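Entry for the shared binder. Reason: the reviewer on the internal report wants the predicted structure included alongside the sequence.
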Amino acid sequence: MRWDRLLAEIEAAALDEATLERDALAGELVDQEWAAVRARDLIWGDVALDVRGVGWIEGQVVRPAEDFVVMTAGVRDVIVARSAVLGWRGGTGRAPELLGVGARLGWSQLLRAIRDDGEDVRVVRIDGSQVVGTIGAVAQDAIRVRPLGGADPGSTAVWVVLTAIATLQVV
């Protein structure tokens, strides 16, 4: 009987050690998985984004790009600069892989398309200030916005550095 109890104790100790080792390995695997995930991959679907200069925007991310996300929030889409996102709540799975044109789509292409369509925009900068008007020129790292209703669009145009953009919305 004594041998039975001793063997049972040894077996229980071995099982405890195996369980601890398994749990440690599982924890390492989870850490490795998270280490490979970028914020770009998690901001997808129904989310609330905390955006510098804007505050919280709730909606659905419908198109990811490397530098921004297009989000349906209310009746209009909002383009949110990734560099202005301070944090987020929610998210539904992982964003689709950026392939082909989507992988290369950047601010310049998007802003030129909006300019070519002649759309008016509301640009909210990371300091909370806003510029409303029409995009006149798209430089490598800035856009010129002609304010609405200005008498001389060239003299009242405002240049906005792309890194200062928090959100852009077609109005």
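Summary line for the report: The first helix runs from residue 2 to 35.
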